[in-house]
Specification:
Elements (H helix, E strand, L loop, with lengths): L2 E4 L7 H10 L3 E5 L3 H7 L2 H8 L3 E5 L2 H4 L9 H15 L12 E4 L5 H9 L4 E2 L5 E4 L1 H11 L11 E5 L2 H8 L7 E7 L6 E2 L5 H10 L1 H20 L4 H25 L4 E11 L13 E7 L2 E10 L11 E11 L1
Parallel strand pairs: 1-2, 1-7, 2-3, 7-13
Antiparallel strand pairs: 4-6, 5-6, 8-10, 8-12, 9-10, 10-13, 11-12
Length: 329
Amino acid sequence: MAVLLYYPRVNPPREILHKALLYWDGIATVVPHDPDDYAAAVQPELTQLREQGLYTPLFFMRQVMDVLNFPRWDFNSQVLLEEIQRMAESPARPRLPSPPEAYLYRSKFSEWVEMVLLQHGLAERIPDDSRYAVPKEVQHLVVSVLAREWGTPFPASYVPYTDRSDAYEWALRAHDEQRLPAFRAELGRLLPVPAPGTSTADVLVFRERFNDERQRLMRALHRLLTDLRRDYEHPAEVIAELRREIEAASKDYQAAVSSSRMAWVHRSVTATVALAAAAASAVEPNLTWALGLVGGYTLNVATREIRPLKDARKKHDFAYLHRVETAFS
């Protein structure tokens, strides 16, 4: 299983932290590079999980910013430029605090970012430093735009995951000239999460005790998303072929959930799966349909358009939106 990359903030909500520990190999977040800033920003619980190999800090350094080429050559940069301009023109435009609370790194390819931010008063140069100070909102915007590209410089596989609709759209929004079709599937009913107030220690005990059950469930769902990506013209047939495997895995996992002493809830979790460019002629955007019952729940799938990845070598392009405010009975 991959590592859940929570963005755009450093510390994930407890509910998403528990989700990562149950359904992924661990969790990662983007953190300050400066040791003092890192120590101040990262919560002690994440530090403890790092010692157990379950938390990975990703440092926001120059090679990450190198992904942002000049806007006329790069669709990530085109989206970022539009969002910076929209942020600057907003009546609630962010202000630079003193002392600075967030930074961006200069790089050979992203000088245009510095220029645009300085032009709009959304950045300040730091003397004798490779960084410039920005409001947190600006840093969150850049992290969100880059979230789906983050795995490129690293050996691990990171799956972008957020609880903020604006960050989710920043990560996925397509420029007019660069669009890919995508499926959206609601998986929240199949992925229960411990109720608020549950301790992380209890979640770790459950993770270890029912390791086989939780991995079996995630492998089945990962196969579902992968097969939907490959056989995009016949999504109903994909569901039909995998229904028995998913239902068996879900039944075993639900038995584990029921045997625990923890209370559980179901939150809305939307998985977006990028399709191949060739699917554009076969998949019409903005459609929604039910594919049938899976694990006792109706699986709904919708279509949309998203921004393609720069690194086409990635085999899987998934992104998740977690809605804490949306609960299922």
